[in-house]
Structures are given as C-alpha cells and as structure tokens.
Amino acid sequence: MIPRPEHLCELPRCPCEKIAGMTQHWSAPSASGPVHSTVPVPGSKSITNRVLVLAALADGPSTVHAPLRSRDTVLMAAALSSLGVGVADREDGGWDITPGVLRGPADVDCGLAGTVMRFLPPAAALAEGEIRFDGDPHARVRPMTTVLDALRGLGADVEGGSLPFTLRGTGSLPGGEVTIDASGSSQFVSGLLLSAARYEKGVTIRHDGKPVPSLPHIDMTVQTLRSVGVEVDTGVADVWRVEPGPIAARTWHVEPDLSNATVFLAAAAVTGGEVTIPGWPATTTQPGDAVRGILERMGCTVTLTGEGLTVRGPEKLSGLDIDLRDESELTPTVAALAALAEGRTVIRGVAHIRGHETDRIAALVNEVNGLGGKASETEDGLVIEPVPLHGGTWKAYADHRMATAGAIIGLVVPGVSVDDIGSTTKTIPDFPGMWDAMLAGAR
C-alpha cells in the first residue's frame, strides 16, 4: 500500500481502519416497522473530487466547505498533497487548498476510485518528474487505456496502459485535439476537461463511439469549470472544447451526495415509511436527483421543499421498465427495490457498469438469485421478476453500492448479511452508524 499523509485521515472524519483489504461481515438489520427518519447526508463525492482537482490547479488558495470525507476523497486529497499541493484540514471538516508547483517523484494510491485514477493523471501530466500510479487489485482491471492514450496524444510521456502506470512530466503539456471513445465511462471526458485549461493549447475532445453514458456527470464537470472562469464550448454534440487560461480560486460549498442519499430514501420505499434528506438542492447536475421520478414511478410519494426531499413509501412497490444510461450509479439501488416490488422490472442502458468497481450486472443477478430471487442478465442490463426472497449472504465484491443494495433488501428480508460492509467507506464514512440511526425511527 502506498503511504498517504496521516494528517488527511484524522478520526472521526475518515474511518481509515475500514478501508482497502479490511472486509467487515455485517448482519443487515431488519426494520421493526415503517422507517420514519430525517437523514443528513454528507457531501457529494463527484463534486468533492472535481473541486479538489480544480482548487489544486487554481491561481490562488481555495476553501472547500462540507466536502465528503470518505476513502475516495481522502485518496484524492492525499494524492494532491504528494504532488506538492497544500491540503490543510479545517475545524469545520472542510479543506483549505493552496496550489503549488506540481512535482515528483510521487506515488499515487488510487484505491478503487475511478475519479482518482481518471481525474488525476491529466493533472499529474503537468508535474515535473515521475509520478507512479497504482491501486487496489480490481482497479488494475478497470478501463484506463482511453485516458492514457489521450494523454499521449496531447504530449504526455506515459508508460503503461492500465494500473500500475507511470507519468514522466516536464512541468507543462502542449494539449490540442484528441479523439476518444468514451462509451465506457463519462469519467474519460471529465478527467481530460478538468485540467485542460492549464495545457498550452487547451484541449478539444471528440467522442467517436457508442453513446456516452452518465452524461449528467459531464454536465457537472462543465458547470464546475465555468464557475471558476474556464471557457468551455459544448455547442457541437460529442465535442468539448476548453480554452487555455487561468482557473480562479474560490470558496466551494459541496451539495449533499444525492446518489448516496437514494439508499436511505429506499428504506422508506420498501418499509412504507417516510424519510427526509435535508438540503436537497432545487436544481443540480447530480444524476442522483433522478431518483425522485424513479420512486414516483414505483408508487412512492415524493415531495421537495426548501427543507429537503421527503419520500413516503407505498403499501406495495411496483416494478418498472427503465433506461438508466444517464443515472447508472443508481442501478444497484433500483435493483434492490425491484427485488422487493410487485411486477417485473427491466433495467436498460447500463452495459458500461460491467466495468465499474465490479461487473455490477453479473453481481446483482448473482446476489438476487442467491437469496431465492429471479434475475437474469441482458446485453445492456438485467431483468428482475417478483418472487419471495430468503435470508443469506449478500456479497459486496468490494463495491460500496453492492453493499448498500444488500442493506436495503435486509430491511424486509430477515437473515441477510453483507460480507463486506467496510466497502461502503468508499463514499459513506460510517454507513452502519447512519443506518442504525435511521432505523431508530422505525415504528
């Protein structure tokens, strides 16, 4: 394991004892009745790691308020620190970021974080010296060729096509135009966009391939760039142009992580209860916001006010036929709901999640069927038929969203246990504690 600065992981902000390689078997608690709770959710992982990269490349110091402090974001902060960026803890749980001259030698531990392994290399290509990247065992099989080949095309010296790989920088990068196939992940585009303004010629990215999944995440990246004065042209479909120029320093306030929040809203849905997430934004680029329409289609009552989002579960959930291409990170949660619903559910448009932390399609089918369910794979998704489930072990595959899907099912199916609840620290610092606190309101 590549060492990381200890000051970035002070307890209780980051439960580092629960991270890579330390599995934790967990008996998923069943709800004693409908869950009634208000659940504050930590900041968005997607926004936090985008903000950290931009703050590291900015013209002056930035402050990040209410960031997510989880394994993925702490790894990003540690990696930036190792490259010469000042990353200081704030008493309120935020970070003060002071840009510095990026330089190696440095070792970057990506863990299993797609945002680290795909967002940081384009920034590290601006460093002087050698930067070595590695991560968890499964991270070594996650797609990286698209980003690394693109960096080579923009003038970077890269050795390797997947983790582990090495970048050798001279302190700048020419940039220019590059054509990629981003059908495997929107992160390929976002990673290149985030650092593009610092390249001598900026960057023009052209996508050539099947449709790009999770387009809202690219919209999030573009909006974040524009908020710090970066010129981004999105006038042509599948083409993104970033002009070279400065990145402004600013104070950031990170929204709650809506994808993480969906798990707690699902508790209301499956138990016929009511859960409120405070601070749900009225407008957002987070794909997790799509859960509002999904839960309504499944029979829930969904209300958004200035106080937050409230979901009230129905007596019985309904199955649905849905394309989740743009919100594919919600697939495990929707699959867990579907396994407990009445009626057939078809999930489409998510072939690319086979390359996430695990092959999520195969994993969901295996685990639903392992509890007596009836699920099957399709070319770009899965089908779940309504049949009664029984207890058993739900495997997480070191995947945070697989683990939380098992927790949802365990609310109404006695005897479910998750083999690695520690994997949830990737995006939720203390999921078991938050889950128990929510269930204290069951009645």
TrEMBL record:
EC nos: 2.5.1.19
Cited Pfam families: EPSP_synthase
Alphabetical list of SUPFAM superfamilies matching this protein: EPT/RTPC-like (SSF55205)
Family annotation (InterPro entries): Enolpyruvate_Tfrase_dom, Enolpyruvate_Tfrase_sf, EPSP_synthase, EPSP_synthase_CS, RNA3'P_cycl/enolpyr_Trfase_a/b
Residues holding 3-phosphoshikimate: 45-46, 50, 185-187, 214, 329, 356
Catalytic reaction annotation: 3-phosphoshikimate + phosphoenolpyruvate = 5-O-(1-carboxyvinyl)-3-phosphoshikimate + phosphate
Chain residues that bind phosphoenolpyruvate: 45, 114, 142, 187, 360, 401, 426
A cellular component annotation (GO) from this entry: cytoplasm
Enzyme class: transferase
GO molecular function: 3-phosphoshikimate 1-carboxyvinyltransferase activity
Tree of life domain: Bacteria
Catalytic residues identified in the record: 329 (proton acceptor)
Protein name: 3-phosphoshikimate 1-carboxyvinyltransferase
Naturally occurring in which organism (per UniProt): Lentzea fradiae
